[in-house]
Design brief:
Layout lengths: L1 H4 L4 E2 L8 H10 L4 E2 L15 H10 L8 H15 L8 H9 L6 H11 L3 H10 L9 H11 L2
Parallel strand pairs: 1-2
Helix pairs in contact: 3-4, 5-7, 6-8, 7-8
Length: 152
């Protein structure tokens, strides 16, 4: 991708399967020049690539960088953590989103449809993933739920 585009490429990862840092490292190995990171992994679902962990990993790997590991650690612990409404972790919802390969914007709509059609929301999310739905196609949740409940 990097060779074909001829422009700097960046990478943004979510941690719904616990792979944000490793996927970010893989992106660097394949030529990404910019990696989105957040202190404490702050972000949707299970969060994003955690800055302080990423800084530690690339430093241990000997990858050239200008990140100050201790500064990120202090910022995460002393500034970001007290502001967070909840810790970033991989809960059932985040794991299902990652497993299904669908974006977090589907979650609330899926819960509503699951209630309406008396379905397990995980089944709906997995089916949406099988159908390769992407953000902006949330209107398909009702159609998919109807198909799961009544067939076709």
């Amino acid at each position: 991708l990097v060779e074909k585009l001829g422009v700097p490429v960046g990478f943004h990862s979510h941690n719904n399967l616990g792979l944000a840092v490793s996927n970010s490292i893989a992106a660097i190995e394949y030529g990404a020049e910019y990696i989105d990171v957040t202190c404490r992994g702050l972000g949707a679902g299970a969060g994003n690539t955690q800055a302080e962990v990423f800084a530690a990993v690339i430093d241990r790997m000997g990858l050239k960088n200008n990140l100050d590991l201790y500064e990120y650690m202090d910022l995460a612990q002393d500034v970001v953590a007290p502001m967070m409404l909840r810790e970033q972790y991989i809960d059932s919802a985040a794991l299902t989103l990652g497993y299904a390969g669908v974006y977090s914007s589907f979650l609330l709509h899926t819960y509503n449809a699951a209630k309406k059609f008396d379905l397990n929301p995980r089944d709906i999310l997995v089916e949406l993933g099988k159908r390769r739905m992407v953000g902006g196609q949330e209107d398909m949740i009702i159609d998919v739920s109807h198909a799961l409940k009544y067939g076709s």
